[in-house]
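Pasting as-is:
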Amino acid sequence: MPVDIGYESELRAAAMGWLSRRSAEAGGFRLFARPELLEGFTFAGRRVPLVATRQGIWKPRDLTAALSILTVFTPAGQKAPYADAVGADGLARYAHRGQNAQHADNRALRAAWEYRLPLMWFIGVAPGVYEAIRPVWLIDEEPAARAFVVAVDQSQRSAAVGDATNRAYVEQVTKQRVHQPVFRAQVISAYGTCAICRLKYPSLLDAAHILRDGHPRGDPVVQNGLALCKIHHAAFDQNLIGVRPDRLVVEVRKDVRLQSDGPMLLHGLQEMQGIPLVVPASRRARPDPTRLEERWEEFRRAG
């Protein structure tokens, strides 16, 4: 049966447009629950699920190539159930389904690679809740590792698979397109509010690193994150405010407390002195005490 590339391409473009409109309606930050992904999208007058009911690889019956891939949520401190990872070349990998390379789902991914069709990658940030990374492309297969190589940006589609020469640049793109959005979504999902001022508008919240990106322990994991509003994220990054690790309260730098500069300084920063930090309900998602202690020492030196 011949492949209708035009139809497959139109459906994908429509699905990604639908995701983008939902995100825009929410101010640019939007997570998707599995029921919405199963029921919410229609194309040519019919409902088209964007994910499978259970498994991670999804190909609707009337398509030849897979439409989406999904990575389940892994709670903080637990090991992911399968080996999606970043290779030595900085490119992401997506694991085969099972041990059989000729499983129908793996053949569907192979077809997406062969016909150069884009996919959507739904990455779990909470139970049943996903960040939508799109579009992504499969650009190679590694049979021995039972995985496909994933380009998450147009610039990566011509990357040399297995070549670590340009790893720094390629990996930076992977961080920007996958790790950073997923980190932000996981942290905001865990906190639900600014950990300092209690602001609850998701589009105005960021995921602040406790230990900075680039630090040996500055990983994009929930235990190294704080959900902060834009103003408190900037103040935290510049060590104008800190978090006491022993009491989990906010400390405003002394010189900032002594300044006089209008209501934003007064209400936005100075009045945060001594405020208890909001922490996630899940103990595993709470800030890592050792990271907080190291960042506290940096704050003290800055003051």
